Structure formats: structure tokens, C-alpha cells
Amino acid sequence: MIFRILLVFICIIVNADDLEVKALYFKADETKGIIELNENVEVKRNQDELYASSVIINIDKNRMPTHYSAYGNVNFVVVTNNNRHLRGNADEVHYNALNGEYRLVGSAKVVEDNTTNLVVGEEIILNNDIGYVNVIGTNKKPAKLIFKLEEGKKDDAK
Predict the structure, then answer these.
(1) Domains of the chain: which residue ranges?
(2) What's the whole-model pTM score?
(3) Local structure of 83: helix, strand or coil
């Protein structure tokens, strides 16, 4: 049984576009489609990186990741399709691999490298594939956005 669980995990790593996962504790349940990683978790895929206290990876019947949930001191770097580097942190981060949506929950913050672009809120939902961002704040901690406005040329104002 242990060998089969390790085989499932190895298949995920090999077939998931070079997914590299490190943690002090690892548990997999193929029948439930869940891989649990705990303590000093690092997940790397291409240029994307995620660090957290614990991560749960849901896999489908073909052993491909469908959803990632990270908890506890979550920090990440995501490189978008147009090579923008986004760094952020939150209490929890959820990523739906099927639709490309990120959901950051609790003291969420995203900063774009080499720009003034910043998004802060209690919950941030973003999807770079469709260009969607939703930021939710609270009465005590309102949502905050900082971004550079691109001014149009004077000829464009006609």
C-alpha cells in the first residue's frame, strides 16, 4: 500500500509539468484523491512557488492536480503568461487548476515586481487567464489598490 501511494505521488510529480513538492510530513489517500503535506511545505511548478505550513492537493482519477489549498503563513510567487511576477501572501490560498482562479483569504496582499501595483484585502479573487480581480475588505480593513494609470496621448483625446 505504501508503495502504491508513493507511486501515485511520483506520477503526479512527473505528469504535472515538473511539479516539485517538499514537506516534513506527507500523507496520500488515492481513494479520496487527496495529498496532504505538512510543515515547511514548498511547492514549485515552472517559475511558480508556494510556501506554507500545510498544503492539500486534490487529484482527479488520472492523478492530475485539480485544486490546491495552502494554509498558515502562505507566501507565493506567480509568473503570469505575459511574464509579470506577482508576489503575495495570505492566511490561506486556494488555486483551482481547472479554471486558473486564485482565492486569497485573510490579510491578503499581492504586489507586482518592479511596479507600484499593489492589491490588499481580506479576500482577493483573481484569474489572470480572463483578466478578473475581485477584492473584498472589511470596515476595519478596507480593500486597497495602488496601480499606475497609463495616460493616453493628447491626439487620442479628440
Answers:
(1) 2-148
(2) 0.78
(3) coil
* Nearest-angstrom CA–CA distance, 114 and 105: 24
* Secondary structure element (H or E) that encloses residue 58, with its range: strand 48-59
- pLDDT, residue 5, reads 38
The secondary element (H helix, E strand) that includes residue 11 is helix 2-15
Residue with cell 483569504: 105
* pLDDT, tens only, 101-143: 999 999 999 998 988 888 899 999 988 777 778 888 888 888 8
* Architecture per CATH, 2-148: Sandwich (2.60)
Cβ proximity of 104 and 135 under 8 Å:
no
Residue 3 Cα distances to 7, 9, 15, 24, angstroms: 6, 10, 18, 18
